[in-house]
Write a structure and sequence with these properties.
Layout: E1 2-8, E2 21-24, H1 34-44, E3 47-54, H2 59-77, E4 82-90, E5 93-101, H3 108-119, E6 122-123, E7 128-129, E8 134-140, H4 144-150, E9 167-174, H5 183-200, E10 207-222, E11 225-240, H6 246-261, E12 272-275, H7 285-288, E13 291-292, H8 297-300, H9 321-338, E14 344-351, E15 360-364, H10 373-383, H11 388-394, H12 404-408, H13 448-459, E16 466-469, E17 484-491, E18 507-510, E19 513-516, E20 525-531, E21 537-546, E22 554-561, E23 569-575, H14 586-592
Parallel strand pairs: 5-8, 11-12
Antiparallel strand pairs: 1-23, 2-16, 3-10, 4-5, 4-13, 6-7, 9-14, 10-11, 14-15, 17-22, 18-19, 20-21, 21-22
Helix pairs in contact: 2-3, 5-6
Function: Catalyzes the formation of S-adenosylmethionine from methionine and ATP.
Catalytic activity: L-methionine + ATP + H2O = S-adenosyl-L-methionine + phosphate + diphosphate
Protein name: S-adenosylmethionine synthase
């Protein structure tokens, strides 16, 4: 089954999204010259987005880890422990305080010293001496007023347990990475984790525990979905000993930290590296800055993407919906994207203290949903139990010990491949994924934006397609390109003999004219004839090129257009399968563009 459209006489003003560029679909990466990247930026209206992370030796993260280590110790002995543990630190001092009701016998001082030591704080020189620092403990029991309202002093059944406080939480997922997490956040987080790895295994023995990372990624918005183009900037500020030089730091960070973490396809000659840009970073940890639990909530979640309700996670048992509510909506959002319901999604839930049922559940797919958001919301409500007591059971959140929650306190609570991260398990969602019309696309008269959506939605899953588009108009923003190749997609029947060919499509100006470059493909030619809106007719000879079949059989059709002239015609045949939701649009679009 296929769909065929004609785009005629779109100026660069009417169709600003598609300016002249080379675009590799599927790999998510655009390689080439500086001019090509500038051209892409103009074409796709790219933007920059930045996410940061901090190492486990950052003072705030030290406090998060101590608070979660206390939670682990309590839950390991008493799964019904009610824990609200805070930690603060400054030079030569760590204090744990809060409200804890538990039957567990917990040595708080030992937990503090063990956690500091495992991170690497073993002397004053690195920022804290785990064996000699002051440890202060001020722990009280949970307020009886809260206890009777939330769990009835342990008398309520799981489905009756109320939320530990009011609040609203967000879960987010995006298809730009295998983790279904934002690339900027994933890279910043992995850089921080890699810094710790090479410090502890001796690869970079000059490293000390404290450090921060930050990654800026260039994206374009593909009808609500985020598509990474390249890494724009990498920033690393890491604590180090006094013996290493700045040049040695930069060289080691590039070779042993950045290179293993950031895929080469995202780096180019324009990528900016700021490696310890302030100069020296010898004094760190609690000696350099005070630390407090719950001050890195964006790092803990999605790196600035999506939204955040404001509640921190660490040191809180699952009756605290700041934590358990955020975990269940992450699972919901991830399951929506993983199931193919949407490419990007945010889910919100809200609670009142003492009330089991959520006050509200909200879903937004940013326009990427295969079905309306209200239908997805209904699926979510039918598939997930948002009552705090049931979240604890379904995600096994009462199980502590073995550093389960301590692991979450550094390098992110989401996007981790670890069986203890039960909220990362995708839950199968039941929905009718048969071909259905998309109301935003199926209209009698299509627009450029809608055509753009259909072109990309059909091509994005085909990793072999090279798409070169010229719809720029009279005043091309890329005058350095003398000739452009326009690529269309055709669907062939299975009976057609498909040979395996993967090669770039190229065209270069010769003697001021666009000359077709020949390719060693077993290919046929055919003649397209289409009347434009001004009633002039153009005959154009195009070439079909056999390409490796993926989910649907495809071939490229390439023709030449001078980028200094208006794009008069662009023909596209889009494949239709059961997953792209475009099947019922076929007749409508054929009528609209005949």
């Amino acid at each position: 089954m296929s769909m065929h459209f004609i785009i005629s006489n779109f100026s660069h003003r009417a169709f600003g999204f598609f300016h002249v560029c080379s675009l590799v679909i599927g790999s998510g990466y655009f390689r080439g010259s500086d001019s090509l990247l500038l051209c892409l930026k103009d074409m796709a209206e790219t933007f920059l987005f930045t996410s940061e992370s901090v190492n486990e030796g950052h003072p705030d993260k030290l406090c998060d880890q101590i608070s979660d280590a206390v939670l682990d110790a309590c839950l390991a002995q008493d799964p019904d422990s009610k824990v609200a543990c805070e930690t603060c630190t400054k030079t030569n001092m760590v204090m744990v305080f809060g409200e804890i009701t538990t039957k567990a016998n917990v040595d708080y001082e030992k937990i503090v010293r063990d956690t500091c030591r495992n991170i690497g704080f073993t002397s004053d020189d690195v920022g804290l001496d785990a064996d000699n620092c002051k440890v202060l403990v001020n722990i009280e029991q949970q307020s009886p007023d809260i206890a009777q309202g939330v769990h009835g002093h342990f008398s309520k059944r799981p489905e009756e347990i109320g939320a530990g406080d009011q609040g609203h939480m967000f879960g987010y997922a995006t298809d730009e990475t295998p983790e279904l997490m934002p690339l900027s956040h994933v890279l910043a987080t992995k850089l921080g984790a890699r810094l710790t790895e090479v410090r502890k295994n001796g690869t970079c023995a000059w490293l000390r525990p404290d450090g921060k990372t930050q990654v800026t990624v260039e994206y374009y918005n593909e009808n609500g979905a985020m598509v990474p183009v390249r890494v724009h900037t990498v920033l690393i500020s890491t604590q180090h000993d006094e013996t290493v030089t700045n040049d040695e730091i930069a060289a080691d960070l590039k070779e042993h930290v950045i290179k293993p973490v950031i895929p080469e396809k995202y780096l180019d000659e324009k990528t900016i590296f700021h490696l310890n840009p302030s100069g020296r970073f010898v004094i760190g940890g609690p000696h350099g800055d005070a630390g407090l639990t719950g001050r890195k909530i964006i790092i803990d979640t999605y790196g600035g993407w999506g939204a955040h309700g404001g509640g921190a996670f660490s040191g809180k048992d699952p009756t605290k919906v700041d934590r358990s509510g955020a975990y269940i909506v992450r699972q919901a959002a991830k399951s929506i994207v993983a199931s193919g319901l949407a490419r990007r999604c945010i889910v919100q839930v809200s609670y009142a203290i003492g009330v089991p049922e959520p006050l509200s559940v909200f879903v937004d797919t940013y326009g990427t949903g295969k079905i309306p958001d209200k239908e997805i919301l209904q699926i979510v409500k039918e598939s997930f139990d948002f009552r705090p007591g049931m979240i604890s059971i379904n995600l096994d959140l009462k199980r502590g010990g073995n550093n389960r929650f301590l692991k979450t306190a550094a390098y992110g609570h989401f996007g981790r491949d670890d069986p203890d991260f039960t909220w990362e398990v995708v839950k199968p969602l039941k929905w009718d994924n048969k071909i259905r019309a998309n109301n935003d696309v199926c209209k009698e008269e299509g627009t450029a934006a809608e055509l753009q959506y259909m072109i990309f939605s059909a091509i994005q899953y085909n990793v072999y397609l090279l798409l070169l588009l010229n719809l720029a108009g009279d005043k091309s923003s890329c005058p350095f390109i003398g000739c452009l190749t326009v690529v269309a997609v055709l669907v062939l029947d299975e009976a057609v003999d498909m040979s395996l060919f993967v090669a770039p499509v190229d065209a270069q100006p010769q003697s001021g004219r666009c000359q077709r470059q020949t390719h060693p493909f077993n290919s046929g030619t055919f003649l397209q004839k289409r009347c434009l809106t001004d009633r002039k007719c153009i005959n154009r000879k195009v070439q079909s090129i056999a390409l490796h079949p993926s989910d649907f059989l495809t071939v490229l059709v390439e023709g030449l257009v001078d980028c200094h002239l208006s794009a008069k015609e662009f023909s596209v045949t889009l494949p239709v399968n059961d997953n792209n939701g475009l099947g019922k649009c076929h007749a409508t679009w054929r009528r609209a563009f005949q």
